[in-house]
Write a structure and sequence with these properties.
93 residues; alpha+beta; two-stranded antiparallel sheet
Length: 93
Amino acid sequence: MRRFSQLGAIIVLKPVVIIKTVMGESKRRKDALGEKYGQESYILPWLPLTKSQSKDFMKWTTRGSWMGIAVLALIWVTVLFIGPAMKWWEVNN
């Protein structure tokens, strides 16, 4: 609580706390959405994929692409270094 003195008068300011009722907001949202309340939303209205399915897809494709890069690097090292070192073949420059 703050006190200000101005021209001999004392003004007392009390802090104002605004509390948003979370329960009321939830009920309004539930009434507005109806059966869709609590369900995930689709990425596009005409595409039956949810946002969590999209995240899973991105996770797996990213993992797969890194595995592909690793396999490509392993093949490159084998062709360029391991094969000639084991006398399996010669690399022509």
